[in-house]
TrEMBL record:
The keyword Hydrolase applies. One of its GO terms (molecular function) is deSUMOylase activity. Residues 148-317 form the Ubiquitin-like protease family profile domain. It comes from the Eukaryota. This is Ubiquitin-like protease family profile domain-containing protein. Belongs to the peptidase C48 family. Keywords: Hydrolase, Protease, Thiol protease, Ubl conjugation pathway. It comes from Digitaria exilis. It holds the Pfam family Peptidase_C48. PROSITE patterns: ULP_PROTEASE (PS50600). One of its GO terms (biological process) is proteolysis. One of its GO terms (cellular component) is nucleus.
C-alpha cells in the first residue's frame, strides 16, 4: 500500500500533500483551526483635552518603558510574611517545590534532546542501503521473542510518503516493551497491545472472550491493573489512531492525528478494562465512569504520516513527556525508527 496515495495524486506535488484526498477517505473531521474575527462598528472617535505637568512628563520619559519585576505571588508572599510568621514554613515549601519543578524541567529537556538526536552518517547509509537494491523477500531483521520478521519489502513503508504496515508497527512496539524492561526507572510501566488486539476485541461489537487469554499473568509477568498506561492501536481502513487507558488517573484518551474522535472506541475499552480487572485481578471497578480526556495533540499535514504520528504518541507518552513534536519531524522519525528496527533496540 506504500505509494498508493502518491499514485492517485498522479505524481504531482499538491500543496496540501494529499491531505484533502486522505481526509475524504477517512471521513474524519479535523479540527477547524480557522479563527473568525468580527469588527463591531463603534461610536465616532472624539478628542479629549488633557493638561499635562511638563516636569512629570520629563521624568516619565527618562524611565524605561519596561522593567522586569518579580512575580506577583512573590511580592504578595513577602508582604504577608511580615504580618504572619507562620508563612515562613509555607515559603520554604514553595522554594522546595520550585526546585523540584526546575529539576523536572531540566530532565524533560535532556530527554527531549535524546529524542531528536541526529543519526550518524554510518546509520543513515545503513538505512538507505536497506531501502534500495536487493531482493524484496530478503529478511532484514527477525525479532525472535515475537517471531516478527521484517523483509526488505515490508521495510519500504518507512520511506517518506508511505503508509506504515502492521509488521513494522508491531516490531517497534515490541522494542518499546524491551526498552521499558531494560530501563524501568526511566520509563513508565506500560502495556503495548499490538495492531490486532482492538480488531479482535471489537469484532461483532464486543468480544472479551476472544482476547481473554492475551493478558494472563503467566504470559505477561504482571496484570494490567499494575500499569501506568495501556496503549491500544486502532486501525480504521486507511488510518491509524491511538487509544490510551490511563490506569493511574482513571482516564481515557483518543488520539487521532486528523483531529477526529470516536467515543465508541473508548466505550468498548471501558467495558474491556472493567471485565479484565475483575477477571484477572479480582477487583471491581467501573471504567464506564472514568473521564474521557480531550487534549491538544500535534496533527498530520499530509495523507500518509498517521502511523508515524501514532508511534510517536506512544513513544512520548511512555516517557511521561508532552507531545512536543510536529509534522516537520516526521521524516527524521521515519529514519530513526528504521535505524532502531535494524538494530532491534529502541533508544
Amino acid at each position: 500500500m506504500g505509494n498508493f496515495l502518491s499514485g492517485l495524486l498522479g505524481g504531482r506535488q499538491h500543496k496540501d500533500e494529499g491531505l484533502g484526498l486522505y481526509k475524504s477517505w477517512v471521513g474524519g473531521q479535523s479540527r477547524d483551526l480557522t479563527v473568525a474575527t468580527e469588527v463591531e462598528a463603534g461610536a465616532a472617535p472624539h478628542l479629549l483635552e488633557r493638561k499635562v505637568d511638563s516636569r512629570k512628563a520629563v521624568e516619565a520619559a527618562k524611565r524605561p518603558l519596561w522593567q522586569k519585576r518579580p512575580p506577583f505571588y512573590k511580592e504578595a508572599r513577602e508582604r504577608a510574611r511580615q504580618g504572619d510568621p507562620r508563612l515562613e514554613e509555607i515559603s520554604i515549601n514553595v522554594r522546595i517545590l520550585e526546585q523540584s519543578l526546575a529539576e523536572i524541567q531540566k530532565a524533560d529537556k535532556t530527554a527531549k534532546k535524546e529524542l531528536f538526536k541526529p543519526l550518524t552518517d554510518a546509520e543513515e547509509n545503513e538505512v538507505y542501503g536497506c531501502f534500495t537494491g536487493g531482493p524484496s523477500s530478503k529478511v532484514l531483521v527477525l525479532h525472535e521473542p515475537s517471531n516478527i520478521e521484517i523483509t526488505k519489502e515490508k521495510f519500504q513503508c518507512l520511506r517518506p510518503r508511505c503508509w506504515l504496515n502492521d509488521e513494522v508497527i508491531n516490531m517497534y512496539l515490541e522494542l518499546l516493551k524491551e526498552r521499558e524492561t531494560r530501563e524501568p526507572k526511566k520509563f513508565l510501566k506500560c502495556h503495548f497491545f499490538n495492531t490486532f488486539f482492538y480488531k479482535k476485541l471489537a469484532k461483532n461489537g464486543y468480544d472479551y472472550k476472544s482476547v481473554k487469554r492475551w493478558t494472563t499473568r503467566r504470559k505477561l509477568g504482571y496484570e494490567l491493573i499494575d500499569c501506568d498506561k495501556i496503549f491500544v492501536p486502532v486501525h480504521k481502513d486507511v488510518h491509524w489512531c491511538l487509544a490510551i487507558i490511563n490506569m493511574k488517573e482513571n482516564t481515557f484518551q483518543y488520539l487521532d492525528s486528523l483531529g477526529g474522535m470516536d467515543h465508541n472506541v473508548t466505550n468498548i475499552l471501558a467495558q474491556y478494562i472493567t471485565e479484565e480487572v475483575k477477571e484477572k485481578s479480582s477487583k471491581a471497578i467501573d471504567a464506564r465512569l472514568w473521564r474521557e480526556e480531550i487534549v491538544d495533540i500535534p496533527l498530520q499535514q499530509n495523507g500518509w504520516d498517521c502511523g508515524m504520528f501514532m508511534l510517536k504518541y506512544i513513544d512520548f507518552h511512555s516517557r511521561g513527556l508532552s507531545l512536543d513534536f510536529s509534522q516537520v519531524n516526521m521524516e527524521y522519525f521515519r529514519m530513526r525508527t528504521a535505524k532502531e528496527i535494524l538494530r532491534l533496540r529502541a533508544d
